[in-house]
Fold this sequence. Notes:
In chain A, 28% of the residues lie in helices and 31% in strands. By secondary structure, chain A is of the alpha/beta class.
Amino acid sequence: MRIGVLGMQGDIEEHLAMLNEIGVENVRVKSIKVLDTVDGLIIPGGESTTMVKLLKITGLFNELKKRIRNGFPVYGTCAGMILLSKKIVSHPEQDSLKVLDVSVNRNGYGRQVESFVANISIASIGGIPFKAIFIRAPQIVRIGKDVEILATYNGDPVMIKSGRIFASSFHPEISKDTRVHEMFAQVVKNALSC
Amino acid sequence: MIERGTWVVKEGFADMFKNGVIMDVTTPEQAKIAEDAGAVAVMALERVPADIRKAGGVARMADVGLIRKIMKTVSIPVMAKVRIGHISEARILESLGVDFIDESEVLTPADDKFHINKYDFKVPFVCGARDLGEALRRISEGASMVRTKGEAGTGNIVEAVKHMRTVMDSIRKIKSMAVEELSAYAKELRAPFELIRLVKERGRLPIVNFAAGGVATPADAALMMTLGADGVFVGSGIFKSSNPPKMANAVVQSVLHYDDPAELVRISEGIGQAMEGQEIETLSEKLQERGW
Lengths: 194, 292
């Protein structure tokens, strides 16, 4: 099993380091050729506007959309979640992959001085609280009926799944906690065996 | 219990800029061009460094009204510069809500001995450095991100290359040193021992390190990425070129494809003239010498 990290822009190395730590083979994905070699993909944090532009130039935009719709496992953190979402309420002019039935507000919790760390509980990874780091994070303002909430903060969903699509508005890759990455690796592994 | 403005939030934000390009802008219109070209952030300032050089006099923090307009115009993060040691300019920018402060040698220093204690602020800071010792001194004062100083406003990459190579060379040395040799090296670099030990442990700078000062073409940006930069600042290079939207987009793409010459050929074609460059020897003042 091999998991890719979308390599357009952002904290790509931090996700790769997490995958190394849990012993999962990994690679930075900058082209369709490399995308062909992975069984699942993480879309990192970074600038969503930058990533969308580069995805289109490299031709990965349509390719990803098609594969994710066909059940290819994907996990988006922060900007990654924005890219997956169906609607960006705060910036309707901004394009996204529209594969996850949620509406988000970019920087919904404010600018950088409002960025924060909070302990949240993620039932599917066990009872110990997860130190979730929110950086100019997107806020989920609507979720579709097929979307399952995995964690909340102050009543807002902050981690969700729909089929094999996972997303979080926070950044597990810059915490020291590998549990979310382990969970996603398990999803990719299960997808391979069915 | 939630925390704001802590180290993990500040340093973590800098991680999000990685593999990206941050562009100097002087108007809301320029900020929009930068955003549309794929910049990960903009640096709001009154004049680009090339014009600061020409104008002479004292260069200060940009007008608050201008920064506010730029913050309203773009959805990407907005940075702004303060003079070295100018605590009050930094407090003003923090209160205004800028996302990152550059305590920058490009502006005229306000303090000729000390930099700002950046731990005192919720907003993260980036600072310039010419070598590893300077970078680690800035980190010990609370900087969440460093950049090479290069020689801003010249369109000449030679100083940025020198500074990046100097930093990387010291890191390589530390990696191969025995632990008992580290404290002598810390003294030589005038850097805190604990940070030198952290560099050895991680095999790299403990925070994000961008290239800056003299980037004028997509090839310049690719070169800095090849030398180990985490990303690139472009100052005068975009809006002093003949076609800013094309140049801006080409630089963004070159940071992604820095290791793919065929892509760099495609990216470099038909983007107009780069900014005019200057020989370092002809400069009456080197901005890089500011900072202590």
